[in-house]
Amino acid sequence: MAQMLRQGDGGHVITISTSLVDHANSGVPSALASLTRGGLNAATRALAVEYATRGIRSNAVALGIIRTPMHQPSDYVELAKLHPVGRVGEIDDVVDAVLYLEKAPFVTGEILHVDGGQSAGH
User: Fold this and answer.
1) Is pTM beyond 0.90 here?
2) CA dist 44 to 13, 17, 25, 41, 74, Å?
3) Which GO MF terms does the UniProt record name (predicted)?
4) What are 50-55's contacts with CB under 8 Å, separation 24+?
5) Residue 94 and residue 63 in contact, taking contact as beta carbons nearer than 8 Å
6) What CA–CA distances, in Å, run from 47 to 38, 78, 88?
7) Exposed, middle or buried, 55 (CB in 10 Å: 0-12/13-18/19+)?
8) Which tens digit of pLDDT belongs to each residue from 79-114?
9) What is the pLDDT of residue 53?
10) How far apart are CA 37 and CA 92, in angstroms?
């Protein structure tokens, strides 16, 4: 933020969070994620308000399960059941969300859920 303020031409901060912050699931341990990512979500909204008049936006992307090396490939069938769309997310899904936020100058303070509908319910 300090660098963006010194340069004087605004900027954009995007943090990566998880949908589990707002939509805990008894089958997925999420206390630590809620503690850490919940703080990021709160800071995202606070920074959006605090720096809006200085041309700095702040948003977050709250993820569901994304196909990465963090999970075993054999687990994806079961993990896909956590998402109403019936599949896990791909890296491209995350990239598309980040690019959308970057190209949306009137969006700030948003927690964008990229979770295959998980945050909408089951």
Assistant:
1) no
2) 8, 10, 23, 5, 34
3) oxidoreductase activity
4) 51/1, 52/108, 54/5, 54/10, 55/9, 55/10, 55/11
5) yes
6) 14, 37, 30
7) middle
8) 888 888 999 999 999 999 999 999 999 999 999 999
9) 94
10) 21
Q: For the chain, list residues with pLDDT below 70.
A: 24, 29-30, 122
The predicted structure's pLDDT at residue 76: 85
CA distance linking residue 105 with residue 9, whole number of Å = 13
H, E, C per residue of the chain? CHHHHHHCCCEEEEEEEEHHHCCCECCECCHHHHHHHHHHHHHHHHHHHHHHHHCEEEEEEEECCECCCCCCHHHHHHHHCCCCCCCCECHHHHHHHHHHHHCCCCCCCCEEEECCCHHHCC
Rg (CA), the chain: 16
Query: In this predicted structure, what is the pLDDT of residue 72?
Result: 85
Tell me the domains of the chain and their CATH numbers: 2-120 (3.40.50.720)
